[in-house]
Amino acid sequence: MAFHRRAIVLAALVLAGQLLTGTPVRAGTLAEAVDCAIENQTPSISLGAEARYVVHLYGGSGSYSVSFAYGDGWVDSASVSGSQVTFAHWFQWTGTFTQTARVSSMGSSATCTARTQVW
């Protein structure tokens, strides 16, 4: 909820600044800041099993660029129109790996993480 309040306050400050400086306000120039969350569908898996992740996307323009690093040197990417994107991966060795999603939309970006234990 605090995220949405910050976005509203930021938009109000930008609008107030434009009104004070006489800069015209154009429709569609302010976009909500982008955010993300990783739904780790396989937080603990055996070696050789498929790890699955859903990246949920919020804010922005509804069109996103997503880079997804699995924590073992492999990275996938996707361009998405919608609210989520799915990634799958097969780890080649055991350990605990941190996944990182980097999301951008309309000049705004966010990073979210998850962890997977491979045994």
What can you tell me about this protein's structure?
This protein has one helix at 2-21; strands at 32-40, 44-45, 50-60, 63-69, 75-81, 84-90, 95-105, 108-118. It has 119 residues and is α+β, with helices and mostly antiparallel strands. The protein has a five-stranded mixed sheet with strand order 2-8-7-4-5, with no helix packed on it. Strand 7 (95-105) and strand 8 form a beta hairpin. It starts with a helix and ends with a strand.
Order of helices and strands: HEEEEEEEE
User: Rough shape?
Assistant: elongated
Strand order of the largest sheet: 2-8-7-4-5
Helix content: 10-25%
How many β-strand runs? 8
Please state the average pLDDT score.
83
Structural class: alpha+beta
